[in-house]
Amino acid sequence: MMPAVIFVVLNVTDAYLTKVGLMAGAVEINPLMAGIGSNMIFKGLIGIAVVFALYFLGKEKILWLLNFGMLGVVLWNSATYLIINLWPLHSFIGTHAGF
Q: What distances in angstroms separate CA 29 from CA 4, 6, 7, 48, 73, one per listed residue?
């Protein structure tokens, strides 16, 4: 059950960080999520639907792999946000680091 909760929390965190990043000038690089990637409710519902589908199919162990992937996305979004907002040379690199 814990991997399921972690997966949903990571998805909502991803949506929040995407929203913050987009407001700071980043660009959504996932074409499937363009326009909806920062909607925390939608991302939470997608996460819940994936969890239910995996449990229904008896593949809940895949959640650990998905959690590592989502953790990578959250860390990437966090790093991008920090670079855009805190690193004084971000204008040299450009603000299109991506989300």
A: 26, 24, 21, 23, 12
**pTM for the predicted model, two decimal places:** 0.79
CA–CA dist 28, 22 (Å, integer): 7
d(CA 79, CA 74): 9
Half-sphere exposure of 59 (CA within 13 A, CB side): 9
Query: What is the Cα–Cα distance from 89 to 97, expressed in whole angstroms?
Result: 13
Give the 3-state DSSP-derived string for 60-78, with helices as H, strands as E and coil as C. Answer: CCHHHHHHHHHHHHHHHHH
Q: What is the pLDDT of residues 61-83, one digit of tens each?
A: 999 999 999 999 999 989 888 88
Q: Are 80 and 23 in contact (CB under 8 A)?
A: no
SS3 breakdown of the chain: % helix, strand, coil, rounded to 5? 70, 0, 30
